[in-house]
Every structure is written in C-alpha cells, then in structure tokens.
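Re: that backbone. Tokens:
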C-alpha cells in the first residue's frame, strides 16, 4: 500500500532570471513499511523534497499525499496537528531541550499534543535504542551518538506513520553512523514505520530497501 506520494511536485524560489527550480516536477511513491534513501549532492533538492514530504514548507505546485490525505489542502493549524500525529522527524541537529532529561525530551511532543504517553511502547523503543540507563541524564551528559538516539526515540514515541530523516548521522563518525542507522532500520521494522532518509553518504544509503537519486530538482534514478 502506498503511504506517501508526490505528484508533479514543484518548488521555485526567486523570479525571472534569478528563479531557482529547487524541485521541478517530482513524482514519487513510497510503500507502507519501506525504508527509502534519497541521495544527491548539496543543492540537488533533496532537503527541499524532505521538507515538502513532511509539510514543513508549501510547494509552488503539485501534491503531497500522506496516508491518503492531501496535506496541502489543510489549513496551517490543521497541517501542524496532522504532521505532529502522522510524521516523525530526525534532523542532523539533535534539537533536544537542554534543561529536560532524556525521558522528558522523548515524551515532550506527545505531551504538547495533549496525548497520553504509551509508556509500554515508549519503553520498548528506549530499550531497542539502548537508552534505558540514560533516562535521567541531561543532553549535555550524553555523547553525540546517544543524543541522536534520543532524537530517534522522540520521533518514534508518538507512533508516526512515517519517519523522515535529514542527514541523521551527519555529525557522527562512521562507526557510530552505521550503528545508529542500523538501530533506526531495526526499530522502523519492529514498529512498522515507513522511513525516508536523505543523505549524501552512499555507503549509508545502501542500508535502505530502495535508493533514488535527485539532481537539479528531478529524480534521475529509481
């Protein structure tokens, strides 16, 4: 079943001779439970595409359908709620709240949404990511790899249908990168998450079920 789809997706910046086609007619389908890697050089449009898939920015033209819903038909407040409940994000910057403990960081988005924390499920995610001994620690007491694991746990905790990862291991060394990405893949499979990751790292991309390449705002290989 297709859980994520784009139809003729375009994003243009500027006007006239200065107009930049960051996305220039992207058509893409992602199946439920799939781990997709999107690769491309800096400036190829991959980050712009991920932001569109997650509803973080609106396109110039085209459609993004998430779990059967045309997300850009929603008003801003509706889109914010939909995104919070359906999509998890993992960025290169960990974006942890420095004054909150690991546990508090993980459950924060659920609490902001007014939801009830499924402690049994969250503890499964924490165990899968090897964080059970760090729950009372503050972010500055953790290594980079541990902080990224917390960011992944936070993204998974709300049980999103889709996990979007933007260069999730860009700040980590190669071994830690492989370890963290391996954990993302395992937890994604275990908790039935669909994952879309953008990266410039070809070796990490090989861990995905499928790789697509984007150049100059267009998908060139599938």
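Recovered sequence:
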């Amino acid at each position: 079943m297709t859980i994520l789809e784009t139809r003729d997706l375009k994003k243009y910046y500027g006007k006239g001779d200065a107009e930049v086609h960051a996305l220039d007619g992207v058509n893409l389908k992602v199946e439920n439970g799939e781990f997709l890697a999107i690769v491309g050089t800096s400036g190829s449009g991959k980050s712009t595409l991920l932001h569109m898939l997650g509803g973080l920015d609106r396109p110039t033209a085209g459609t993004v359908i998430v779990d059967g819903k045309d997300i850009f038909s929603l008003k801003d407040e509706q889109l914010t709620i939909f995104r919070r409940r359906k999509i998890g994000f993992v960025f290169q910057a960990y974006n942890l709240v420095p004054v909150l403990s690991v546990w508090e960081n993980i459950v924060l988005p659920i609490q902001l949404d007014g939801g009830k924390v499924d402690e049994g499920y969250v503890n499964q995610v924490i165990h899968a990511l090897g964080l059970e001994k760090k729950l009372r620690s503050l972010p500055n007491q953790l290594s980079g790899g541990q902080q990224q694991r917390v960011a992944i746990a936070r993204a998974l905790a709300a049980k999103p249908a889709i996990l979007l990862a933007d260069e999730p291991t860009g700040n980590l060394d190669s071994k830690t990168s492989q370890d963290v990405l391996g954990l993302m893949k395992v937890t994604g499979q275990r908790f039935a998450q669909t994952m879309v990751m953008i990266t410039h790292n070809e070796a990490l991309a090989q861990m995905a079920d499928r790789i697509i390449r984007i150049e100059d705002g267009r998908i060139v290989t599938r």
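The CA atoms of residues 66 and 157 lie 19 Å apart. The beta strands are 2-13, 20-31, 35-39, 61-66, 69-70, 87-91, 162-166, 194-199, 210-215, 218-221.
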